[in-house]
Amino acid sequence: xxxxxxxxxxxxxxxxxxxxxxxxxxxxxxxxxxxxxxxxxxxxxxxxxxxxxxxxxxxxxxxxxxxxxxxxxxxxxxxxxxxxxxxxxxxxxxxxxxxxxxxxxxxxxxxxxxxxxxxxxxxxxxxxxxxxxxxxxxxxxxxxxxxxxxxxxxxxxxxxxxxxxxxxxxxxxxxxxxxxxxxxxxxxxxxxxxxxxxxxxxxxxxxxxxxxxxxxxxxxxxxxxxxxxxxxxxxxxxxxxx
Length: 242
Fold this sequence. Notes:
Number of helices: 7
CATH topology of the largest domain: D-amino Acid Aminotransferase, Chain A, domain 2
Low-confidence stretches: none
Number of domains: 2
Strand content: 25-35%
CATH class of the largest domain: Alpha Beta
Radius of gyration: 18 Å
Mean pLDDT: 94
Order of helices and strands: EEHEEHEHEEEHHEHEEEH
Oligomer: single chain
Helix content: 25-40%
Largest sheet: 8 strands, mixed
């Protein structure tokens, strides 16, 4: 009888961090911001800064994934899934759901880190698909919008372009959303971060899910209620270089 206790690498237990970057012909998009977030995520897990090689000379069209655990640093390039491209073009049907999480996070929370513990995120998206949607928007127990399983929530009301403040909501800071807000004034939009309820979100002119590979995916229905397509979607995608 083999009574040895096998200890798996910590990365297999979700004890690691990662980043996904959009690879473009001129290199990995927003590389410095992603490396900074990877370093911040590692620090939240009491890991040293990653010793990354220079990947700025990579080019093409695809997804760059950096996985960093206590034992492994891996960098790979793969094609962008067709589903992601379709969502960018056609939009998505979203539903909202209580995540069972408060915006008041415990001191040991690593919710601001992009960790490898994504099983719940993927389970949430599969649940949304079973409900007839493409993705979902998580709500806190207080009723505030937090984020989507793999994206930030961005919305437009009039000329005001908003996203959720990461520190207040206890969520991962979104790089694509932050960059969009930083360039929004160039097209006449006023950027801001604020908390929002599900009812207030439904009343917004336009809702998007923002992430590195999707760029922006417009929410075409929320909880079964259809939403008119926005002329801002192609304009903002162009602003982001998609």
